[in-house]
Design a protein that fits this description.
35% of the residues are buried. The chain is built from six helices and eight strands; from the N terminus they run αααβαβββαβαβββ. The strands form three sheets. It has a four-stranded parallel β-sheet, with helices on both faces. By secondary structure, it is α/β, with parallel strands linked by helices. Helix content is 32%, strand content 19%.
Length: 155
């Protein structure tokens, strides 16, 4: 559940249909989790605000739509771009290791076109070892799975 002040922050940019939807959108990837937001960018912004990234560094892959980086910026975070591995369409592991540092407070991995990188566990391990929360942008990956785990659940 999104705290009311944060929902209002992003909710102010929601359209009439989203603001008036009678039933919350149920997320199949999040047991018990549901929230109606206008789009994936709004969802990332809310997560960044909850994580309090203002004036802090968040790693964002180069292979994504502008909205991913914009959501970090709207939450006041500083975007640090991380190269993409052409074999997986996701974050390059060597570049990720090089960019994770003492000023990094978050990292985002994007499941472009519904492709969950088979290296998601390695990406998660790198982030966990550095104490950096990993956010999975699964906007393209509704219903996608890797090893029987849904996108956005740590696949």
């Amino acid at each position: 559940c999104i705290p009311e002040p944060l929902h209002a922050t992003c909710g102010g940019r929601c359209g009439t249909w989203t603001n008036n939807c009678g039933q919350p959108v149920v997320c199949p990837s999040c047991p018990g989790g549901q929230q109606c937001l206008s789009n994936g960018s709004c969802a990332i912004e809310v997560v960044m605000r909850i994580k309090e990234v203002k004036d802090k560094e968040v790693l964002v892959p180069t292979n994504t739509f502008f909205a991913t980086a914009a959501a970090v910026g709207l939450a006041g975070g500083r975007v640090e771009l991380v190269d993409t591995d052409p074999a997986t369409f996701s974050v390059n592991l060597k570049t990720l290791k090089r960019h994770v540092g003492p000023t990094t407070v978050g990292a985002i991995v994007v499941h472009i076109g519904g492709i969950i990188t088979p290296r998601i566990h390695e990406i998660r391990r790198i982030c966990d070892e550095a104490g950096v929360p990993l956010v999975e942008d699964a906007a393209h990956a509704h219903g996608c799975e890797l090893r029987s785990k849904a996108a956005g659940t740590g696949s």
